[in-house]
Amino acid sequence: MDDLTGKVALVTGAASGIGLATARRFAAADAALILVDRNAGRLAAAVESLGAGRHRGVTMDVTDEAAWTKLADEIDRDAGRLDILVNNAGFGVFRSIADTSLDHWRAIMAVNLDSVFLATKHLLPLLARSGSGAIVNMSSIRGIAAAANTGSYCAAKGAVRMFTKATALECAALGNGVRANSVHPGHIATPLSAGVHADPAIAARLLADIPVGRIGTPDEIADAILFLASDASKYMTGAELVIDGGSTAQ
Length: 250
Ligand code: NAD
Fold this sequence. Notes:
Blueprint: E1 8-12, H1 17-28, E2 32-37, H2 40-50, E3 56-59, H3 65-78, E4 84-87, H4 102-130, E5 134-138, H5 151-174, E6 179-185, H6 191-198, H7 200-208, H8 218-229, E7 240-243
Parallel strand pairs: 1-2, 1-4, 2-3, 4-5, 5-6, 6-7
The protein binds nicotinamide-adenine-dinucleotide.
């Protein structure tokens, strides 16, 4: 599982949080990385910390289809292969249905869901050529168990879960060797969740909902992603891996 030698891996949202932790795990496992993020400054720092000579950063918005077609052509031309795709970029905010505008709903769908479709569509030919391609899509426990005031996020992450299964079945039917699985983190300490966790009342409520009694770390999600990206999980496809300290077991 710790050996990705010779493999090329693309991680979106790689400049921060879970994506950055995943990029670090993959680099330690000897993969060559393509790190995608829209935050140019943080992305450059991430690539630098991993080894700029070996790894490449691409500043783009994952909701932009033209950017994906351009990147697919560049990967084909430069690396000639792609073995692992981690669709991680995403975000959500607490908001009631009444307070959710259609524009906000569409923005949540675009970054969490449209991006997964676009990357899969445009990178699948390269992944299929690998012979043992692996797609890992970032969902959430909110893709399995809903919560109040998170309607758009729950809908997007639930759709990611089902799109992953449909991708897995389509690839199996095609016999192209590509596996697709989803990960479902619970409450993880990242810049995205820092604001929520900083509120003592909300933090106490979250902790009360986590049987193991603590918030998870980005590395604990990166370990699960590495497992699903590696040959250690080669008989897994269309599966959902929950990493939540027991929250959804209750
Ligand atoms: P984060 O904010 O630390 O990192 C997300 C990264 O994605 C950032 O670097 C950001 O610039 C990038 N990004 C966002 N929108 C983008 C876009 N349109 N184009 C390109 N890059 C974009 O967040 P995180 O907590 O590491 O979250 C990563 C993923 O994990 C998200 O999909 C999130 O929904 C999911 N998740 C997080 C938690 C949690 O508790 N933190 C729990 C479950 C699922």
